[in-house]
Amino acid sequence: MPSPQVSPSANVSPAVGAMAAAASGAGSTGVAVSTPGERAIPDRSLLMQGIDLQNAGQLDQAQAVFEFYLSHFPNDGIALYSLAVLLMGRHGPERALEVVERGIRVAPGFAPIWYAHASVLHRMGRRDAALASYDRALEVKPDYVEAMINSGTLLRETLQHLPALERFNRALAINPDNQNALSNCAVMLTEFKRPLEAIAMFDRLLKINPDFEWGIGSICYERMHICDWSHFDADVATILAGIEAGKPSAKSLGVMAITDSAAVHHRCAETFADLRYPVRHAPLWSGERYKHDRIRIAYVSPDLREHPVGHLMAGIFERHDKNRFETIAISIGVNDDSRLRQRMLATFDHFIDARMMESRRIAEIMREMEVDVAIDLAGFTSDSRSEVFAMRPAPAQVNYLGYPGTMGTKYMDYIVADRHVIPPEHRKFYNEQVVYLPDAYLPAASGLKIADRTPTRAECGLPEEGVVFCSFNHDYKIAPHVFAVWMRLLREVPGSVLWLMSRNPLSQENLRREASQRGVDPDRLVFAQRVPRVEDHLARYRQADLFLDTHPYNAHTTCADALMSGLPVVTCMGGAFPSRVAGSLLHAAGVPELVTTSLADYEALALQLARDPQRLARLKARLIATQPTNALCDADGFCRNLEAIYTSMWRQTQLGGARDALTAAA
């Protein structure tokens, strides 16, 4: 369900600390000088001494030296730069702002002070002004690689992808081995769907620095997107060893596709959150109790459009009780002007297109609107804004739906789940308080009518006879150990085919080669073509006989779609949230007998069903017949249950420190 998680490397943050030594020139002269306390007239060597103290981590002493030196030489750009670096690192960008603004006034010809000014503004979320200052730094020093990289990062954040890639390439033209430029350039290539170039770039990076942050995880994840498993076992072993050692070896979403260990997911998320989305600001909400006639709930998402999350939530948005809830949409993604987007525009009390807003401003708007409960529908997925929640704009902050796991932070208060995806014994792996919906945590898409006409097998590219196994999951979810099971099923069921969704020719080529190596005719893999309307896409599920789930990252929205279309799904329920979603949905749909807990049982059940067309027909008929009454399709009941959870969260904020038994997770 989540979009691929790609973003510039954490090493290319807007921080300015790494530049201090470079700005100082040759470094310390080794000349003995008077200390600030002696109030002697300082010379240049005192500034070098301050920089040495700063680099050694003796920050109180360094700050005293810089301030004393600047009392005599107030226009010294290096001293102003160094003090700004120190203040931003210790106290945040607000404390450094006055220093860098003074610096650009008195030393406009010193490029690092423009870089520092830009970095402070960048950290404060003032992106337009930050970009202007990065550009001034490059005017003064055209080969300023750090300014190219950080401004490229900023451009990427504002969805200016081509200019961002151009800046990273400019940096690489000057320094082909610059690790931050290589990392960012590789990430941009993934976004431009140029996987082979991205993999080559990540490979160059890892040859230079095998421990580069997120490096091994990024190349593994990109290889999985094209079903290239040539390095899979070695990559996974390196990633898991790094996570165990507390290293940032992989981003958390990619790890979900290689292991079903809830403990590993937890540790990885904490590492990722600490480095990428720490708390940098004082909280915008600090305990105030709002007095509203209706509870104000805000959904923050880049996916309020034609997207799986949009399809799942549209019917819930429409069903909210407007007598009890004031609903706010904070859209941080593209406006695709789709029918689904129009449904959403019509249902919210307030719809804010915040895609081009700075994160700080988004958080301030939420605080100004006195949001009671803020729901993050994206987590650590593509184009999310976790930093908004790090600013604490709302009393209750919720991780829900778009990201299947803990975010590993202290500022997300709750995660909404069910007892299948997070059984009580797994709650220790979640920083958030786990709050349970009574049935499935995932709402099936409502308000969407499957097309009446079913396309013929020929129109779908399928043979007229034979069992059709189906798996319409993303390529990166297809793990080699599961693909091996699928190939054994094809060998055991003569005339059967495997119907897949991949639209990437590289993936198709790799999967066909893998099939051939496992003794299966590559032509028995059929790849579905894109159709314009989702209603028509869902109708073609009727031509499949059995949906084969992926592991360790299950089908989520895709599983719900299959069940709504009357197609049975066989799943292997694992040990962490992403590997338990299909099992949750199958229980809600009233067919728990399709849930297995080992790949051996999964394979055996799929084979039994493929050989028993009458049993499959009965399952299909049952799925259709029970839709009016099963929990999966009860959108009204789902919305009421979700509203009860939001009400409990609101009650707890109203009670302050008092305990409310009604809000405690059962």
How do you describe this structure in short?
The chain is of the alpha/beta class. It has helices at residues 20-23, 44-55, 59-72, 77-91, 93-106, 111-123, 127-140, 145-157, 161-174, 179-191, 195-208, 215-225, 232-244, 252-255, 262-276, 308-319, 339-347, 359-368, 386-390, 480-492, 505-517, 534-539, 557-564, 581-588, 599-610, 613-625, 635-655, and strands spanning 295-301, 325-331, 350-353, 373-376, 396-399, 414-417, 433-436, 468-471, 497-500, 525-527, 546-548, 569-572, 595-596. Helices cover 47% and strands 8% of the residues.
Overall description:
The protein has 666 residues and is an alpha/beta fold. Among the domains are: 10-168, Serine Threonine Protein Phosphatase 5, Tetratricopeptide repeat, CATH 1.25.40.10; 295-352 and 367-377 and 393-436, 3-Layer(aba) Sandwich (Rossmann fold), CATH 3.40.50.11380; 468-633, Glycogen Phosphorylase B (Rossmann fold, 3-Layer(aba) Sandwich). The protein is built from 27 helices and 13 strands. The chain has helices spanning 20-23, 44-55, 59-72, 77-91, 93-106, 111-123, 127-140, 145-157, 161-174, 179-191, 195-208, 215-225, 232-244, 252-255, 262-276, 308-319, 339-347, 359-368, 386-390, 480-492, 505-517, 534-539, 557-564, 581-588, 599-610, 613-625, 635-655, and strands at residues 295-301, 325-331, 350-353, 373-376, 396-399, 414-417, 433-436, 468-471, 497-500, 525-527, 546-548, 569-572, 595-596. The strands form two sheets. Strands 3-2-1-4-5-6-7 form a seven-stranded parallel beta sheet. A six-stranded parallel beta sheet has the order 10-9-8-11-12-13, sandwiched between helices. Helix 17 (339-347) links the parallel strand 2 (325-331) and strand 3. Helix 8 (145-157) runs parallel beside helix 10 (179-191). The longest helix has 21 residues, at 635-655. The radius of gyration is 27 Å and the shape is globular. The two termini are 27 Å apart. Residues 1-38 have low confidence and may be disordered.
